[in-house]
Design a protein that fits this description.
- This protein is mainly α and 201 residues long.
- The protein folds into 2 domains: 62 residues, no CATH class; 105 residues, no CATH class.
- The protein has 12 helices and no strands.
């Protein structure tokens, strides 16, 4: 069935392009498609893009610790948990978990202290980006480095490569998402394009 104009499904192509371009902030996407004629609510948009927040298999393949922890936790049991599912659950707060997901998280935390440690740090970083301060960020990086978990150590090294930008993301309320959205609309929607005429010298 063809999506009705003004509904979130009718903006699938645009949202997917923005998502793959790196814009993952729901409120930013909401503001952009409202300008394009979206008539629905933010909750409808959040529900529509929620499946895209699951990490791809390639990303979880870079987390050998998660795979190892799962093998140790689920060994000898009938129920197997994929690395991508476990990695996705690292980023979800308790209120966002479904009952089955909460059960998986509780089981992994009880049987695998490493998973519990990773989840605590991942959720801590998520909080820092929203309401954190620079001293909190510094303490978080120190804790992550002391875990001995390679994926976290590599993540901290990546943060330090552009620490000023990370600190700005923590302290400043601004986002370049709206600007990127306007640029992307100029690229993707012909009716917004303009033709620049360069004189021949």
């Amino acid at each position: 069935m063809q999506a009705r104009a003004g509904m979130v499904a009718s903006f699938h192509d645009y949202l997917r392009q923005r998502w793959e371009a790196g814009c993952r902030h729901g409120r930013t996407l909401f503001a952009e498609i409202r300008e394009l004629g979206y008539l629905g609510s933010f909750s409808r948009l959040a529900e529509f893009i929620s499946p895209w927040r699951q990490p791809p298999v390639e990303a979880t393949a870079e987390l050998p610790e998660v795979k190892q922890l799962l093998e140790e936790t689920t060994h000898g049991t009938a129920r197997q948990i994929s690395p991508q599912v476990a990695a996705a659950l690292l980023t979800k707060i308790r209120a966002e978990l479904t009952p089955p997901q909460a059960e998986i998280v509780d089981t992994l935390k009880q049987q695998c202290p490493g998973f519990a440690q990773m989840r605590e740090l991942v959720l801590g970083f998520r909080t820092i980006l929203r309401v954190g301060k620079l001293p909190t960020l510094q303490r978080w990086m120190e804790r992550a480095l002391k875990t001995g978990i390679h994926a976290l150590e590599r993540f901290v090294r990546t943060l330090k490569q552009d620490l000023s930008a990370v600190e700005a993301a923590v302290t400043e309320p601004w986002s370049n998402g709206p600007v990127e959205g306007h640029i992307n609309r100029l690229k993707c929607y012909p009716r917004f394009k303009t033709t620049a005429v360069c004189p021949v010298l």
